[in-house]
Amino acid sequence: MSTTTENAVKNFSDILQRETEPLKLRFRALFALRSICTDESVHGIAAAFTTTSVLLKHELAYVLGQMQNRTALPILERILRDGSEDEIVRHEAAEAIATFGDMAYEPLLREYADLSVSKSKAVSETCEIGAELIRNGGSKRSEFGSLDPAVSAESASIEKLRQTYLDESKSLYERYAAMFALRDIGTEEAVEILAEGFNNKNRSDLFEHEVAFVFGQMSHPASAKHLARVLADENRHEMVRHECAEALGTINTKEAEDALLALKDIPNRIIRESVEIGLDIHDYHFTDPALEYIVESFE
């Protein structure tokens, strides 16, 4: 590692770990460390798990999975096993572990798929999906650049995908695979089908949160009304609402921005912080092109 890169890792790690820094600046430091992707940057990210921000810890776990640096695996396992950690963070750690596709971790995910072990429905469901992902060979980089918790279903008609996606008798992995296939189609019709996933009879916070995440990847204006409705719904789990806020930040419509601005002072911390990040994402994409969310190179 060059001196320039070493200094960059230290500087970004310091920003990420400092509680007094604005959250949006800490997020940018995190994504900069992600782009460097060395053992040292993994350790810099791991050191930030002491933060009091559940939102940031959740993002740390997500980024460690996306980096695919195996140094992160024992760190993620520790987070998953920590019953005192917030379930949103533990779920993200489990999902990140699964993206590596390492069969050595399949028994761990099977163990925590048991609700009596995980003590969290969201964590159990994540581990159920993750164990199946590993058995299917692990995640593959999508056209959106992400490593997803399920591989997109093979070619099928949009109606067939809809049937699988909404069929609650199917495994969560199968439904996720259909969800990502609908994302890949990317049409307004696909958006409307995906939005039906917010209204399942047997509600799954995990499933609904993934719908919001997918909408964030698609950035389709037709999804804004659905995301705004769910974000404003106080009966929805924080896991779902926070993902809606970040997704709205990727959509360049007044409706999306207004939905975020309406909740920028909400008392709930994770929702408020997600709105802050959503607005910052919006500024990055649509307002100020000089903002740097991801630093591509330090060489």
List strands and helices in order, with pairings:
Elements: H1 3-17, H2 23-36, H3 39-46, H4 54-67, H5 73-81, H6 87-99, H7 106-112, H8 115-118, H9 121-135, H10 158-166, H11 172-185, H12 188-195, H13 205-218, H14 224-232, H15 238-248, H16 254-261, H17 269-287
Characterization of this structure:
With 299 residues, the protein is an all-alpha fold. It has two domains: 1-100, Leucine-rich Repeat Variant; 140-298, Leucine-rich Repeat Variant (Alpha Horseshoe). The protein is built from 17 helices and no strands. It has helices spanning 3-17, 23-36, 39-46, 54-67, 73-81, 87-99, 106-112, 115-118, 121-135, 158-166, 172-185, 188-195, 205-218, 224-232, 238-248, 254-261, 269-287. Helix 2 (23-36) runs parallel beside helix 4. The longest helix is centred in the last third of the chain and has 19 residues, at 269-287. It is an enzyme of class 1 (oxidoreductase). It catalyses: [eIF5A protein]-deoxyhypusine + AH2 + O2 = [eIF5A protein]-hypusine + A + H2O. One of its GO terms (cellular component) is cytoplasm. GO terms for molecular function: deoxyhypusine monooxygenase activity; metal ion binding.
